[in-house]
Design brief:
Largest sheet: 18 strands, antiparallel
Number of strands: 18
Oligomer: single chain
CATH superfamily: Anthranilate synthase
Strand content: 35-45%
Structural class: alpha+beta
Shape: globular
Helix content: 10-25%
CATH topology: Anthranilate synthase
Radius of gyration: 19 Å
CATH class: Alpha Beta
């Protein structure tokens, strides 16, 4: 699919005319409009585009997207491995090594060689609209991502930065528990600490705590953390302080990342990374946490998707497994072309 032209979509914003690609985050402080894809493991791709215009995502065209059948997906961690991982994390918590860890699995299914991530975007926009939907198609650079993320990683307006961590997921508001709220508050403290490393002293605030947001097929608890960058701090400093996103890592972040590396058997890639745009000319930006995200692994001929859950001492292993199924069910149905049945709770 190297013959497809590079592009990026973020909501109704379409960027075309690729100018250059770099892995240097300092470029985001220069000029122009950039699409940004940061892998959870630390890889960064920044692509500057010449033309940016308002253009709604086109309606799906019959036959343009042929996704995997729902039954074709395999998981990097099966039920037994995932629930064992939950218990392993609870043992680490009991030993005082960590408070919370986000445990994820990567789902994979064969995809046609001519499959186009922008065609998947059209299907996602109708079947699972999301506030931070985005697509980056850079076939020559190994980046083909479509996200239906509901979660804000970093928004920037001049020197003001904001993050919107999500912790707590259920089918309905009644399913949200005290464990969900405690987990959200824990991650808010982590994000406050992250932003505090790069923001002016005393400027970090929490405008919203544990607000309920409704999304297709589920509800989330969402908070917001805001601060003002200290003088001289730029994108390299901000990303170094905040990455990877706290809501998909754990607390303390360093210990969580070590446990994630031990327990997870597949790299997350853009899943749980950062996906979005930076307008260096206007000093504005919006990066999503790369959840509800599909990406192509062309060398393997696979489409990949990630799902995870936050594990605390109060976690029940079966409940956490079911949460990953809930998060994956609708999106896998959308990608398979059976999104009209997504509300029935298809299982992975």
């Amino acid at each position: 699919m190297h013959d497809l032209p590079p592009l990026a979509r973020f909501g109704d914003r379409l960027a075309t005319g690729l100018l250059d690609v770099t892995s240097d985050s300092a470029a985001l402080d220069s000029r122009g409009f950039w699409a940004v894809a940061a892998d959870f493991e630390g890889g960064l791709t920044c692509a500057r585009f010449a033309d940016v215009r308002t253009e709604p995502v086109p309606a799906p065209m019959p036959g343009r997207w042929r996704g995997p059948a729902v039954g074709d997906w395999t998981s990097s961690l099966d039920h037994a491995a995932y629930t064992a991982g939950v218990e392993r994390i609870r043992a680490y918590i009991a030993a005082g090594e960590v408070y919370q860890v986000n445990l994820c699995r990567v789902l994979s299914a064969p995809v046609a060689p001519d499959a186009d991530v922008d065609a998947l975007t059209a299907v996602l926009a109708r079947g699972n609209p999301a506030p931070y939907a985005g697509t980056i198609r850079l076939p020559g650079h190994g980046v083909e991502i479509a996200t239906a993320s509901p979660e804000l990683f970093l928004r920037r307006d001049g020197r003001t930065v904001e993050s919107g961590p999500i912790k707590g997921t259920g089918r309905t508001e009644a399913e949200l528990t005290a464990k969900d709220r405690a987990e959200n508050v824990m991650i808010v403290d982590l994000v406050r600490n992250d932003l505090g490393r790069v923001c002016a002293t005393g400027s970090v605030t929490v405008p919203d705590l544990c607000v309920i947001e409704k999304h297709p097929g589920l509800v989330h608890l969402v908070s917001s953390v805001r601060g003002d960058l200290r003088p001289g701090a730029g994108w390299p400093d901000l990303l170094a302080a905040a990455f990877p996103p706290g809501s998909v890592s754990g607390a303390p972040k360093g210990s969580s990342l070590r446990i994630i590396e031990e327990l997870e058997t597949a790299p997350r890639g853009p899943y749980c990374g950062g996906i979005g745009w930076v307008d260096a000319d206007r000093g504005t930006a919006e990066l999503a946490v790369g959840i509800r995200t599909f990406w192509f692994d062309r060398p393997a001929g696979l489409l990949r998707f990630g799902a995870g859950a936050g594990i605390t001492w109060g976690s029940d292993a079966e409940d956490e497994w079911r949460e990953t199924e809930l998060k994956a069910a609708r999106l896998l149905a959308v990608a398979s072309g059976t999104y009209d049945r997504a509300a029935e709770g298809l299982r992975t």
